[in-house]
Amino acid sequence: MPGPVWADRRRLNWRTWLPPALVVLAIASAAYGLYSCLRRGDRSTIPSEEQFQFYMAQLESDVPAGRVAAVNVLTESGDPRALPAIREKLEDPAGEVVGAACVALAKLGDRKALPDIRDRLEHESPAAVAGACMALAQLGDQEALPAMLKLVEDEDIAIATAATRAMAVLQCKVAAQPIVRQLKATDLGLRMAAIEVLGHLGDPAAVAPLEELAKASGAQLEPPPTEEQVTRLNEAIRAALAKLGVAAGGTEEQPARPSTPDAQPSSERSPP
Questions:
Q1: 137-150, pLDDT tens digit by residue?
Q2: How many C-beta neighbours within 10 Å does residue 127 have?
Q3: CA-to-CA distance for 16 and 18, rounded, in angstroms?
Q4: What tens digit of pLDDT does each residue of 167-210 get?
Q5: Cis peptide bond N-terminal to 265, omega within 30
Q6: CB atoms within 10 A of CB 232
Q7: pTM above 0.85, yes or no
Q8: Rg for the chain (alpha carbons), in Å?
Q9: Residues near 93 by Cβ (< 8 Å), separated by ≥ 6?
Q10: Helix axis angle, 64-77 relative to 49-58, nearest 10°?
Q11: What is the largest CA-CA distance in the chain?
Q12: Going by CATH, does the domain composed of 15-170 fall within 1.25.10.10?
């Protein structure tokens, strides 16, 4: 049964309490996400019908952050009744809401929404385009690959980063060359994404650029990276090179050869 605070919500002055309420809503969204991960066998995380209806109403909040939080909470609930309303958010005037709806529909496995999500790759909002990239990758949409490949080198950092990471999910080998160029990105997040994705794609042509970057991994980043960030970059480079078959010392790992008499030094061979 809902408590007295919940029952008295209609008497609240929302103009006064809306900012802190949105903070609480965002925290609730993250908490529900964690809770649903811990309860993998039960996606129903909203305990009451009244609260479900509350979050459905929040989809029409005047504040985009409130709509984003409502989309996230309803997605984690797994309640199929929310699906049509989340689809409608693909037409939301706020790009961040559109992006959240794209990701939500992918989490819900809504392949019927694929054509509409593909269309969002041409949205004017970077947040919407980035969300569409992540969603299409999660849905394994090969048809959208050509369009997303062009976005790997987009001028907007959020779009380029999302498209770059999508290439790893979709295992798009032909993306290696443009992603190599992103190793020189001045944005830390984009450079880190490029390093990690090149390791996943497994293209040997990425070895030399990664080894070159390892000599000064934080060069030309804006703002200049902290010591901790440089350490993370170097660790990511080593991990990517290891996936590409390059040992820590910079040499390619060779498979071990079986020990045979012919492989022994001549001084140790038995006389005929």
A1: 999 999 999 999 99
A2: 22
A3: 6
A4: 999 999 999 999 999 999 999 999 999 999 999 999 999 999 99
A5: no
A6: 17
A7: no
A8: 25
A9: none
A10: 140
A11: 101
A12: yes
Distance CA 67, CA 36 (A): 20
Q: State how far the Cα of 98 lies from the Cα of 125, in Å rounded to an integer.
A: 9
CB contact at 8 A, 199 and 238: no
Contacts of 249 (CB under 8 A, 6+ apart): none
Q: What is the pLDDT of residue 247?
A: 76
Amino acid (one-letter) located at 135: A
Q: Which two tokens stand for residue 110?
A: 């809504």
Q: Which amino acid is at 95?
A: G
- Taking 3-state DSSP, the helix, strand and coil percentages for the chain, each rounded to the nearest 5, stand at 70, 0, 30
The torsion angle over the Cα atoms of residues 9, 10, 16 and 22, rounded to 10 degrees, is 50
190's tokens: 């984009």
Question: Does the domain formed by 175-247 have CATH 1.25.10?
Answer: yes
Quote the strand ranges of the chain, DSSP E: none
Residue with tokens 């993998």, as numbered in its chain: 40
Based on DSSP, count helices (H) and strands (E) in the chain, helices before strands.
14, 0
The DSSP code sequence of 128-192 is: HHHHHHHHHHHTT-GGGHHHHHHHTT-SSHHHHHHHHHHHHHTT-GGGHHHHHHGGG-SSHHHHH
Domain residue spans of the chain: 15-170, 175-247
Which residues, other chains included, contact 199 with Cβ-Cβ below 8 Å and sequence gap of 6+? Answer: 206, 236, 239, 240, 241, 242, 243, 244
Angle among Cα 172, 176, 177 to the nearest 5 degrees reads 135
Q: Which residue positions in the chain have pLDDT lower than 70?
A: 1-47, 248-272
Same fold: 15-170 with 175-247: yes
CB of 162 closer than 8 Å to CB of 121:
no
